[in-house]
TrEMBL record:
Keywords attached to this entry: Disulfide bond
Name of the encoding gene: Muc4_1
InterPro entries for this protein: Epithelial_Barrier/Signaling, NIDO_dom
GO molecular function terms attached to this record: ErbB-2 class receptor binding
Organism for this UniProt entry: Alectura lathami (Australian brush turkey)
Pfam families for this protein: NIDO
Stated name of the protein: MUC4 protein
Positions of the NIDO domain: 1-111
């Protein structure tokens, strides 16, 4: 993760909210539930899901080079008690040139 730079008119952000209380669940929500169940080996039934897509996003401080962009998604979901996030990258992963970023002492991972 890093900051995207949309200031030069390159890239777009989309989002879609899925409320699933008392309604039939769309395919995306059913897929998210299946992934949570499979990876965490627990029962899970989403009541709310948000999909955010950053398309062709250049890294912060693109410095005029907006050719190296990345497309990625974050899917946030909750059953009202537990919350999860799935991070999805376009094939090929992140395309940003990390050597051009102003900070190089970055910690990557999770706790």
């Amino acid at each position: 993760w890093d900051n995207a730079d949309f200031s030069r008119g390159t890239g777009t952000t989309f989002y879609q909210e899925f409320l699933t209380l008392n309604s039939e669940k769309p395919p995306l929500v059913r897929d998210v539930e299946a992934k949570v169940r499979r990876y965490l080996r627990s029962s899970y039934s989403a009541v709310w899901t948000l999909k955010i897509t950053w398309e062709k996003a250049p890294a912060y401080r693109a410095r005029g080079d907006s050719r190296r962009t990345s497309t990625y998604q974050a899917v946030l979901t909750t059953d009202g008690f537990r919350s999860y996030i799935l991070i999805l990258y376009q094939d090929g992963g992140m395309q940003w040139d990390y050597s051009q970023l102003p900070a190089t002492n970055v910690l990557i991972g999770y706790t």
